[in-house]
Amino acid sequence: MTTPTNPSTNAPAAGGDATRAESGSPAPSPNGATGAATPPLVARRGWEGRYFEDFAVGDVYDHPLGRTITATDNTWFTLLTQNTARLHFDQHYAAQTGFGRTLVNSTLTLALVTGQSVTDVSQNVMANLGWDEVRLPHPVFEGDTVYSRSIVLGLRPSKSRPDVGVVEVRTHGYNQDGDEVISFRRTLLAYRRGHGPQPPALPPLPDSSTAR
To answer: Where is the composition biased (Low complexity) (predicted)?
Structure first.
């Protein structure tokens, strides 16, 4: 299940401009003597997700986090969505089916793999436009661990909104054995850089001699 990725687009964002809080005087050593100055604090920007300009057709993103689906996950999701298919919560019933055991709710698999892709694909999304071509080639069972990757299929400017662009990706989910358990095509509106909502600015860093 190894596909080369584009290191220029699949790597975390660079540190960017750093904000330093310089200490005005050397910090005292534990025994009270004045020693070398405490290294300055450095604020580095974390991963902020991709904007429309950051995508390129053909990019492949191997999403970093896998997730083991437990029986509790399956039961709670089935209850939450009012799904009455006994195959997902009745072990006696499920044992009599061709699967022989409880099957993970397929819409849980869809939700999980979509969520796994957000860090790389839609952290800066304005809206999802649709999921198409959903395929479930292999069952998912309680205890399976799901991993995923996405491939950028298409990009185009929005005709009605200059602050966003349309991104199309195909996302694939795999279990721990490398079996493909789901695939789908997703279309979304991604903000252009500088046009999306921004979190509030944090307070300035304190003096490095008193911050630790």
So the answer is: 1-14
